[in-house]
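By way of example, what follows is a protein record of this kind.
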Amino acid sequence: MKQFDESSPLFIQKLDKLCKDVSFGQITVEKFSEEVSGYKKNLTEAFNNIQKEEMSEELRSVMNEEIKAGSCGLSLFINGLEKLEEYVTTKNLPLLEEGLALCISGNEMLFKAMELNLQRMEFFKNSGDMNISNP
């Protein structure tokens, strides 16, 4: 498995450790499943909340790139967690790497969404123009 260090996002470090621990028998498959299922539940709730978020068409069109990146990131992350859950029933080790890779891709998309949002907020702050449709 890929090595992660302190510069890696904490959530990815935790998932990486869980995958290593379960593959080496340092935690039970049940404990692994419990942890992964908890993460999946939280991210699925976040994804569903974003999908239900009410906003004007104008705001949605302006923030379209951020919304797409965030939704894609959450979706990839959830798909990765589902791969990790598959490991629980199959014990197929490559699923751990596949799942972790999807989680990493999802995390990168979430960071992209945050960066886009921060850029937009910085623009508003510097321009003094709080008109959201004028980035």
